[in-house]
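Take a careful look at the protein record below. Let me know whether the structure tokens fit the sequence:
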Amino acid sequence: MITSFFAAFMIGILGAGHCIAMCGGISGAIAHANTQSSPQTASLAPLFYNLGRISSYTLIGLIVGYTAQIGLNFGAGYDLLVILRFVSGITLILIGLYIAQINSAILQLEKVGRLVWRYIQPLARQFLPLKTPYHAFPLGFLWGWLPCGLVYSALTLALSSGSALESALTMFSFGLGTFPIMFLVGNLSNKFNHLIQNTRFKKVSGLLLVLFGLHIIYIALVQLSASGI
């Protein structure tokens, strides 16, 4: 259980480059929306945006975890959860290759989520421009449904827990991993943003995610072997 939380947290941290590519623009826009605000007030919008985003991930984790829990109660075997962990490892490798700018196959998976996003995006845009910093929370909550291979990778890992609570906590851990970069990208200088977008940074982060995925696959294979499959 702790291993899944840590793995999800590291997925969030190492996927910083992808997070910025997907959500960095809106994070920066939120941070600079109210140029007349005091520094304290100006920092509230990015904070509430990211809290909304993390809450969304946690809810999604709760939903898929509860679904898996029901499946187990109706006879779905432990082997299915191990297979899901294997799938999570593959997804993680694909997102790592994409971040490292080696292969973009993961974008095909993100296309699936766009079917849902087409209905959610108009709702999210109703909160722009922000009337108050607190409106950033529902904006972030809705933006958390943006199709993202990194989120899907963490979600398959969460799903493999077979527990609603553990799945929710796994996605919460993932959200915490993404928080530092996504909060800071709107508050630090362009020099910092250029560092995160650096090609070498992307390749190192992507390849570390690939290694993480291989490790998860190895564990899944060991578990499958032990179960006699």
About this structure: The mean pLDDT is 82. The radius of gyration is 18 Å. The first helix runs from residue 2 to 14.
